[in-house]
Amino acid sequence: MEMTYRDALRQALADAMRDDPDVVIMGEEVGRYGGAYGVTKDLIRDFGPDRVIDTPISEPAIVGAAVGAAMTGLRPVAELMYVDFIGMTMDQLANQAAKIRYMFGGQIGVPMVLRTQGGTGRSAGAQHSQSLEAYVMHTPGLRLAMPATVADAYHLLRQALTKPDPVVFIEHKALYTMKEDVDLSAPALEWGKAAVRRTGDDLVIVTYSRQLHYALDAAKTLSAQGIEATVIDLRTLNPLDFETIRPHVERVGRVMVVSEGAMTCGVAAELAARITEECFDFLHDPVIRVAGEDIPISVSTQLESGSVPGPKLIAETAGRLFA
Amino acid sequence: MTLQHPIPGSNTDLHRLYQEMRRVRSFEERVGELFVRGQTAGSMLHLSIGEESAAVGVCAAMQPQDTFTTHHRGHGIFLARGADPARMMAEIGGKEAGYCHGKGGSMHIADMGLGHLGANAIVGGGIPTVVGAGLAARHKKTGAVSVAFFGDGATGQGILYESMNMAALWGLPVVFCCINNQYGMGTRIDQATANTRLHERAQAFGLNGETVDGLDVESVAAAARRIVDAARAGKPGFLAVDCYRFYGHARKDKSPYRDAAEEDAGRQKDPVAHARARLIAAGLVTAADLDALDAAIDAEMDATIDFTIAQAEPPLSSMFRDVYDPSEPEPEPVRTRLDRVLARE
Ligand SMILES: Cc1ncc(C[n+]2csc(CCOP(=O)(O)OP(=O)(O)O)c2C)c(N)n1
Ligand SMILES: [Mg+2]
C-alpha cells in the first residue's frame, strides 16, 4: 500500500492508541488543528479530547506533565512542534525524564515518547530548521529514534510506544510528504538495529534520517563512476548499533559519516571517533565527516541548502577519496 | 513507648500532629549530626527545621492513593508521609540500604510505594510532574490527588505558572504547596518579587488559593484539607504555608545575610514548640508525657544514624544499573571499551 511518512506516523499513533488505552497524545495543536504538520489529523475525532490533549504553549510543562503521567501509569506521547524548542524543555527531558530511573534506584521508569521534527528544507529559518539530535544523544537515559523511511516511521513509532524508557522521536520535516509502497503487516526490523540499505565494496556511508536519501542518491552517482558504496541507516541513535557498522568498516576500510547536524561535537563526530578507535587497523583513510556547517541556518533557500550536506557534496567528497 | 506512624489522612488530632512534627525535627537534627560526623554522601543537605507544620499538616490531609513531589528540602514531607527514617537516613548517607540504593541521596529520594514521585534538585523541577500525575489519576480513575511541594524560590520559575494554568484549565486533582520559609538561599522573598501574596497568583489562574500561618499545625491541616478535598473534586488549589527557615540554606551556610534580631524573631515561629504549649495548656498531656514521647522519638532517630553508619555502600558494579530498564543491556563501561580498543595488536 502506498502511503506517506506522515500517514505512517498517524497510523502508528492510531494503532497504538487502539491497542493500549493508556496511550495519550498531548501537545500544542495536536487536537483540533491536527498537528502543525498534520501528523495527528483527525485523531481527536477518533479518540476524543481526553486522549488527544490540546495544550497551552508551555513546552516545559508539556514535557514535565508527560513525565508525571508516564510515572503514574499512562504512556504519553508529547509533541514538541519543532526540535528547535527542545532547549525550553531540557530540564524536564535531561534532568527529569532521563535520570529518574537511575536517581531513584530503578524503582520506576518514564515510558514516554517525545515526538518532534527537525531539519532543513522548508526555508523555515534559524529557529525552525535545526538538527539537534546530538543534544539528546549526549544525555544518558534518553533513547533516540530518527526514521528515514515510511516503513520506519510506522514501525519505530510503534516500537517506541512499547519501550520502558523515554524515547525522543525526531522526524524530518522534509520527509512528511515522501511516499513509499509499504506493507505494514510485514515483520519489522528490530528496534535498535541499523539497516544496511545498499551494499558495495569501496566505501561505507553511515547516516540516518533524510541524509539517508541523499546518501543513496550519491551512491548511484558514485556507482556510475565505478565506486560502490555500502549505505547504513542507523534508525536509532540510542541504542546505537555499532555491531552492524563494524563488519562493513572492517571489510571495506573507507568510511564517511553523513549528518545534517552541525559538525562540531555532532553525531558524525561521535561516530567518526568510535569507528576510528574500534576499527583503526582496518582503515585506509581517516573517517570523513560530512555534516552541517557550524553556522545558523538561513531562510534563503540557497544559503539553507548550502549549509547542510546534499547528494552532490556526498558524492564529490567520496570521489575525492578515490582521486 | 511504641511510635505509631500516621496513615495519611487518618488523623489530624494535635497530639498526633505534634508527634509527627517532633519526629521531623529530631530526624533533621540527626541529619545534621551525620554530616558533622562525615557520614553523609551528599555535600548538599537542606534541613526543614521550622517548616514541620507544612509537611505534617499537608500530609495529614492526603490519602493513601495520593502522590507527591518535593523540592530539595523535602525530608520532613517524606517522613510525614510515613517514610522509614532509617532507610531515609541510609539514602542520605549514600548507602545501598537507602530508598534509592544510594544513588539519589537527600535531594533525589523517592518511593513509589508511598506515592513519592521524587524530590528534586532543580528549583521547580518537580512541579509539572503532578500535572501529569493528575491527568493519569483522572484517566485511570484512581481518585488520587497529586501534590507538588516547593519553596518560595520556585515562584520565580515559569514552569509553576505553566503547570497551574494547565491544572486549572483541565480541572485536575492537583495541589501546589509552597513552603514559604521567606528565603531562597540568601534572597528574601520580598527581594525576589513585588507581590509577596503568593496565593493571589494561583487565584488569577482560576485555582483555589490560600496562605496559612505555619505556626499552627492545626490551621495548616485544616487549610490543606480544604484545598486537597476541593482538588479531589476537580478544583485544583494552591496553598502557601508561611514559616521561617531556622538555619542556613544548606549545612555550611551561616546566613550572614540575616541579622540576629531577625533570626530570633523568625525562630519564635516554632510550630513544634507551639503545638507542645497548646497540648499542655489544654490539659491534654503533661510536660512529662511529652518529654517521654520526645525521648522515644530521639531514640528512634538516633538508631537511624547507627543503622546508616553500619550499612554498606552500593557495589561499584551497580554503577551501570538502572540507566535503562533492566531488560536492556547496560551501557558499556569506559574501561571495558578501552581494554578492547587498546588490546589490538
Ligand atoms: C533551576 C535551579 N536554579 C538554581 C538552583 C540553586 N538553588 C538551590 S536551592 C535554591 C533556593 C531555593 O529557594 P526555595 O525554593 O525558597 O527553597 P528553600 O531552599 O528555601 O527551601 C537555589 C537558588 C537550583 N538548584 N535549581
Ligand atoms: Mg525558601
Automatic annotation (TrEMBL), chain A:
InterPro entries: THDP-binding, Transketo_C/PFOR_II, Transketolase-like_Pyr-bd, Transketolase_C. Gene3D superfamilies: 3.40.50.920, 3.40.50.970. GO terms for molecular function: oxidoreductase activity. Keywords: Oxidoreductase, Thiamine pyrophosphate. Its cofactor is thiamine diphosphate. It comes from the Bacteria. Residues 3-178 form the Transketolase-like pyrimidine-binding domain. This is Alpha-ketoacid dehydrogenase subunit beta. It comes from Paragemmobacter kunshanensis.
